[in-house]
Amino acid sequence: MTGLLEARGIVRRHGGLVAVDDVDLTADPGRVTAVIGPNGAGKTTLFDCLSGVQRPDEGTVRLDGEALDGMDSDERSRLGLVRTFQRSSVFPTLTVAENLQVGAENRRRQGALRGLLGLPDADAGRARDAAERILVESGLTALRDVPAGQLPTGTLRLVELARALCGNPRVLLLDEPASGLDDREVDRLCPYLSGLARAGLTLVIVEHDIDLVLRLADVVYAMAGGRILASGPPHAVVARPDVRSIILGLPA
Hints:
Layout: E1 5-14, E2 17-27, E3 32-36, H1 43-51, E4 58-63, E5 66-67, H2 73-79, E6 81-83, H3 96-105, H4 109-116, H5 124-137, H6 153-165, E7 171-175, H7 183-198, E8 202-206, H8 210-216, E9 219-224, E10 227-232, H9 234-239, H10 241-246
Parallel strand pairs: 3-8, 3-9, 6-7, 7-8
Antiparallel strand pairs: 1-2, 1-4, 4-5, 9-10
């Protein structure tokens, strides 16, 4: 499985504000790449540009060398570039298992159309199998028949992650995956995400929890004012005086 994600010269303006200013980023398969920065640094807007939610005013995004310019988020998702959001976007009236099956169906638009027309769909069984496998791997089996709307925020985060994995992504963009999780849930999340990376998935996370970043990331990009302030190994980036002062709010 490949999944080299490259962004070059990304610029995104909102009126007179430059939210993302000439950003380069590379995320390699089998590694966890983290983007850190204070509120308003441009992290989520950068994710929007990578995933196709917004189109950059300048620059290009490539997946395994293929330019994604002009593709919306659905098209990018079907190519294997999948993204989660800061706020949970699960379907509250569907059960956990049904939410995961929705994720498995997202890469199968043709199969979904055949189902609506009452035609046989050979891939439907594979989608169900994928959802069942991820249900087990993510430790959500006991909650399979519970409507998602009845679950606490931390568990919803895990459901959303599992649903994204059901789409068989090459690249997974996680926007604050630890938000709302307690310490026990974070301790379970870290090895799970590390295992996904070791299996070859490209993981890119936006995260405010610096301890989690230091535990999990292979490469860190520090953003401030829409620009990349520093990038490199996590401990080296976090130790920089400008990162400590501007991003972490610590004495330089």
